Amino acid sequence: MTCLDTTALIDLSRRPDTGRSQRVRAAVREMATKNGPLATTRFNVAELYVGIERSQSPEREEKRILQILEDMEILEFTDTAARVFGRLTARLRSIGRPSGDMDVLIAAVAICNKQALVTRNPRHFAEINELTVLSY
Q1: Closest Cα partner for 85 from 98, 66, 72?
Q2: Cβ–Cβ contacts within 10 Å for residue 114, how many?
Q3: DSSP readout, 112-128?
Q4: CATH, domain range 2-135
Q5: Tens digits of per-residue pLDDT, 85-115?
Q6: Which residue from 36, 66, 73 is spatially nearest to 52, judged by alpha carbons?
Q7: Which residues are within 8 A (CB) of 7 and not within 5 positions of it... i.e. 6 or more apart?
């Protein structure tokens, strides 16, 4: 299983003829072949809901997003992930490289589920050494 970040989910929901969409689709096909089903975190789903609410066409956007999520496992935030989040956040702050809480929450869930994270923004996760990050 491979975990998709919000950027990957957004790019998957776009027209298939765009460069980003083509790149993420190729990466997802490769990951699905190697690692089986796809997943995302509940935090990524929450970020997508923000996009739906801000959309000029929320009903159409929600339909596109729900289509992408329907065959995906949603990884939940557990007590173990909360502890990993606390450890990661404390370490990042101590080295003067704090990251956004959502990115660290997403990373913690992926780490606890032993998942690589597919993202268009690998720099958001660059200081989280425990996380395998795959960019496209």
Answers
A1: 98
A2: 9
A3: HTT--EEES-GGGGTT-
A4: 3.40.50.1010
A5: 999 999 999 999 989 999 999 999 999 999 9
A6: 66
A7: 119, 120, 121
